[in-house]
């Protein structure tokens, strides 16, 4: 059995579906490989009907970096094991990415049908990236977006991502925790996420730790005292005791109080101390624990709540007045449990400057043709008012926007749904950035993506510019994402051309 393919990063490049290589073989045989293709990666809807949070751009760029730095010999070794077409193996072994990559940065808020990533490259180069890009982006977008929903429900209480053990494999655990932080989580529990991204990991204790000291109240107290004794002087001096192994109210909280007193831990302790509740009626128990802590003078003791939490349960706990200083959320974030398949797609929209379109009986699947970019328009109060998807070239609405002139945005299906954007009453920003040009990575922009906390700050800054009614977790107020007039004309011109044939 040959397992060496899993030992190299290049395996991620060819972690693909076979049809992309079957089609590439045909393109090569038909001498189509040098046609310049434009592909958009976007999504059609979110779980709550609102926005998504971008994560994964750094990993996609790294994917292309690996493609360009892997030796011809190594490429040939792997391609020759999975492809029978020798001429295609030879072509791919020598191939490097020579195109362009445009993207909306990690941490940005985005909406359905907006091109998050655009690849402009020779056809085969762009084609074989489809599955690897979607594999990265669907997981990252799904987790960052779910983290956003949960942290918004919890606000102002912080959320920790504790879901590595439920994640769908290694990459999902590592990248997923990073995505959760970008989406608003205060921290995470994964060691490799800390190693790779420099994000400190957090943790408390497990039930098995307590059970290792025996059964019953005395054993639990011994476990607590021993934990405090060895952890109080550590750099990570968080003394959070898990108190529901036997009986939260009658045994656990009392043992925690006794252990803290015995070890001299009180409100003067420089680190964090407190308890975690992981079962039972969390609202009821948290109130009882808060009362006991306050009665004993432990007013700074923290209460962390865990146990299969999601945004609905967190909202319910808030409504019940639960006493909580932090939530630990596992699988709801780690696998975006209620919406596990994000549904991002990768569609060709142009070939040799000829716009292309996909038509479907399912209207949501009709693609937007042409080489495009995205602009965000803000009202006079600084709130995001609308996004404009425009053509890169020869777009009148975009030119008016850039020149701060009056222009009208309208729903592509309903002419009466239109808005006049008046000069001097709006500002704008271009969301689309070019990260790779002619195969060369923009190092400054790329390096920014490695600063995960900067990406998180960008998310929080973007979130602050979203009106409250558009941040609702249920039936959020709709946000205008409009095509420019020239793009609408192009789209429906192609549809009419097809229908009238």
TrEMBL record:
Q: Where is the Nicotinate phosphoribosyltransferase N-terminal domain?
A: 15-138
List the keywords (alphabetical): Glycosyltransferase, Ligase, Phosphoprotein, Pyridine nucleotide biosynthesis, Transferase
UniProt GO molecular function: nicotinamide phosphoribosyltransferase activity; nicotinate phosphoribosyltransferase activity
Reaction(s) catalysed by this chain's protein: 5-phospho-alpha-D-ribose 1-diphosphate + nicotinate + ATP + H2O = nicotinate beta-D-ribonucleotide + ADP + phosphate + diphosphate
Task: State which Enzyme Commission number(s) the record gives.
Answer: 6.3.4.21
Q: What class of enzyme is it?
A: ligase
A single GO cellular-component term on record: cytosol
CDD domains of this UniProt entry?
NAPRTase_A (cd01570)
Under which pathway is this protein filed? Cofactor biosynthesis; NAD(+) biosynthesis; nicotinate D-ribonucleotide from nicotinate: step 1/1
**Superkingdom assignment:** Bacteria
UniProt family annotation: Belongs to the NAPRTase family.
**Name recorded for this polypeptide:** Nicotinate phosphoribosyltransferase
Organism per entry: Fusobacterium pseudoperiodonticum
